[in-house]
Structure formats: structure tokens, C-alpha cells
């Protein structure tokens, strides 16, 4: 392709794919400040990640907290409505998903799956892609479902004046952490708990566990949330089952009856995104639990934690965050686990482990006002203060630029900051860290590793 107008139409179609299911709208601009920089460039182009000519790397994109740029190798054989070459629309749609804040999906047929998909004449967003982008920006309203229609919101929790708990900025060690079915992340410590948002600890916390989780004790060992929305709390030889912060009848129960094969007094538990199985950790060992099997714990377990390359023994907590990645906590530090390379992500900038207080609880000396001034974005969606256009260009003044204008004014979910690029020869999406854009200020940043179709399909039983 060498007709710029045709390429512009395909890129506009890629934006439309996302705007049709969200409150986002996109406006093409030839100059000025905008949000997403679309460029067709060759070789070294100023971002420290040069293209390599025909074949191999096709494109790469940055997450919102790193500007949202999307770059395409101008030396590739880009095509429209053809099985030959590389379809510019589908690659653009995937890259723009990253520009808007989406990470990779484990759903094989989704647009955001970590591998390149061949040309599809009647391409549509997968439900998984739709739900993911709507988790960041909300649902697009229609005439029959007006935007100003009253929305029923959960009743806010009453103030808990007696909940003077420990200061997580002074001592960031935790007992347990989980993300419940509505997407809320909670950490537990002693008799208290906190809600964690993308920009740190939520206002109004800590609160007493006994005030909001009726029947649940403090000083928990671990907590685990399943895909069906059930959350399990573990302490000693017992466990409690909750849904929507309400305990089910008949609890607590012995761990030996509900989780046969799992020991008492565990350290941590979580569902691994690699295979959807539950994993329990204690000391220097771990167990895999699958309720569909009989027995649910294979005789091969326990296994040594050292199988999870880079993880320490005696961890305090583990969970899968909204970006689909696995996080482990021990003491004042946390570890991000690369599920593809199956090791702690030590190649990030800065490498892991990192300080929990700084990166999760937002314990910074700088004022909130100064932070917002320094950061263009803090999460996958745009900050309220940055809802105007942000610089984005397409290489020259005649190229099309696009501006995203979200109707949401609050900070939403975030994905780790990464360049994502596609390898044409083996049809795999590659992920690389973004080391040159103020990573120390972002909530989560940097990743490294290769995600191929074969590694994804074979990693399910690795642990």
C-alpha cells in the first residue's frame, strides 16, 4: 500500500471498533496536542526501539501512561481486505487496544490475544475484548439507554471512626490480598483492611474487618477469589466463604473438608491466570488445587516454590490483578511474575522486587497535585485533568492524528506499561520494556518477555 488516504481509513476503522462499545470518541487532527500518536516509520525513529525492515517486527505501541504512541514499520507489506501481506486494520486495532490501556488476553480468539491473527473479512470484537475495554471506560449509551439515566450505585460504607489501624506507609507488610468479583482489590492486615485503587489506597481506610465482613476474623492467613465470584478466607485450619462481602451460611468449615489435600496455616493462595487453577503456598512448598479432579490435589504435590523462578519462600500474599498478571508479596516488597517466561520479571525498569509502599500504596513525599502535574496519565484511562488533547502526531503535518475524548472523569484500571510488537515470521506478539519515559513515576511499568502461541498453550501445566 502506498495510498495514504486508504491507510487513514483503515486506522479510522480500527478506532471505530473501540468507540462503538465505549463512551470514547476519536477525532482526527492534523496538528496540535492529541492523545495517540500514529506513525508509519522506518528503522531508528527516535524511541530507542528501531524497526528492522521487511518481516520480523511489524509494529509496537505504548500504554497510556507512556503516551499511547503506536508505530508501524513503513517497510512492511501492509494490505487491505487481502489474505496476502499483513492486514493494517487488524494490527492497528490490536495496537490501539494497548494504546487505550489493554494488556494481552488469554482468550485465544480475542483481538488482544498475544499472537497475530490472519486476515478476517468480517472482523468483530470478541466479547472478551469488549468487556476488557468497558472495564476501563464504561459502556457506550444508546438512545434507548441514555447516558443520563440514573445509575444504581452501591451504598457507600459508613465512616468507621474506631478503625484507627496500622499505617501501611510505615509498615507495608500484609496478611493477604485479593481482587473480588466486582474488580475491587483489598489488602488485609491484623484486624483491618484497605481498598487499593490504581492511584493508591482509597480514602476512608483502614476499616475494621469485623465492621464490614460480618463473621470474618482478623489476622488472616490467605484469601482467594474464584471466577464464580466466591471469595475464600483462610486462617489456621478453617476457611470462610463470602460473596459480595457477605458470608455464606454454614461457615467456617475445616480446610480438610472443603480443600482436601491443602495444609493448615497456609501463607498465600491465588488463581493463576496460566491455567485457571488455584495455588496454595506454605513455607518453601506449594500445592495446586483443582476441584474438578478426584482427588483435587495430585500426588505430585507439594512441590518446591523454587519452581516459580525467582519467588522467595514464606510469601505473605498473592493475587492476579486487573491486568491479568500475577503478583506476590513478601515483607515490604512485591514481585511481578512473568507467566510466559515463568520467572520473576527482573528485566523491568526498575526490576522486581519493588517496594510495596511506593508502588501499590502510593506512599510518596510529593503532593498529589505535583504528581498529577508530573504524570500525563496514571492508569489505563485518562486522568480528569488530562481529558483535553495530549500531543500525538503522525510524522508530518499532513498525516492523520487521533484524539480520544472519554466521557469518564475518574481514573480507571491500568495495565503494565509495555511496548507490544508483532513478529511476522512466527506470528507472535512480543512484549518489551519501556525504559526511557519516567518509569519511576508510573504505577506499574516495564515488562520483558516473549509470548508465543506455543508457549501459551503449553504453559498450563508447568507449575
TrEMBL record:
Ca(2+) 3 binds at residues 52-53, 73, 76. CDD domains: HX (cd00094), ZnMc_MMP (cd04278). The active site is at residue 95. Ca(2+) 1 binds at residue 76. Can bind about 5 Ca(2+) ions per subunit. Binds 2 Zn(2+) ions per subunit. Ca(2+) 4 binds at residues 175, 221, 316. Residues 406-415 have a biased composition (Polar residues). Gene3D superfamilies: Collagenase (Catalytic Domain), Hemopexin-like domain. One of its GO terms (molecular function) is metalloendopeptidase activity. Residues 445-463 have a biased composition (Low complexity). Residues 143-158, 418-440 have a biased composition (Basic and acidic residues). The modification Phosphotyrosine is found at residue 251. Zn(2+) 1 binds at residues 45, 47, 60, 71. Ca(2+) 2 binds at residues 67, 69. GO terms for biological process: collagen catabolic process; extracellular matrix organization; proteolysis. Zn(2+) 2 binds at residues 94, 98, 104, 112. PROSITE patterns: HEMOPEXIN (PS00024), HEMOPEXIN_2 (PS51642). Keywords: Calcium, Disulfide bond, Hydrolase, Metal-binding, Metalloprotease, Protease, Repeat, Signal, Zinc, Zymogen. Residues 143-168, 386-463 are annotated as: Disordered. Ca(2+) 5 binds at residue 269. PANTHER family: MATRIX METALLOPROTEINASE, MATRIX METALLOPROTEINASE 1, ISOFORM C-RELATED. Belongs to the peptidase M10A family. This is Peptidase metallopeptidase domain-containing protein.
